[in-house]
Amino acid sequence: MIKLYFLTILYIILTTYANCDKYRIITQVNYNDNVRVVIYGSLRTRLKIALANESGPLVKATFNFVTVTSTNDGLPHSLEHLLFLGSKKRKIRKY
Fold it and tell me: Residue 50 in 3-state DSSP?
């Protein structure tokens, strides 16, 4: 059920933006000869999304953010969101 929900959300995001010509397929590869991985790229933001259709019961999502390490631009802001999530002032939302 979680896998279906996750893939549905990604499908909605990709098809919404794909219809506006904002995403394109960068490459398609086969992992271990049985898992097809499709990598999409945003034409506006350079965001890359890799989707793999796996028939197993587990789903994994990974989010990676690239930041300039010499000045840490972006990293403090990302950490701020992670640290204050669930504080007294910022409650955790239940989805």
Answer: strand
Instruction: Give the CA distances from residue 72 to residues 45, 47, 80, in Å, rounded to whole numbers and listed in that order.
Output: 20, 19, 13
pLDDT in tens, 32-70: 878 888 888 888 777 788 888 777 777 777 777 665 666
The pair of structure tokens assigned to 43 is 């034409």
* High-pLDDT (> 70) share of the chain, %: 45
Task: From 6, 42, 8, 10, select the one nearest 26 (Cα to Cα).
Answer: 42
**7 φ, ψ (degrees, to nearest 5):** -65, -35
pTM of the model: 0.45
Domain boundaries, given as residue ranges, for the chain = 2-56, 65-95
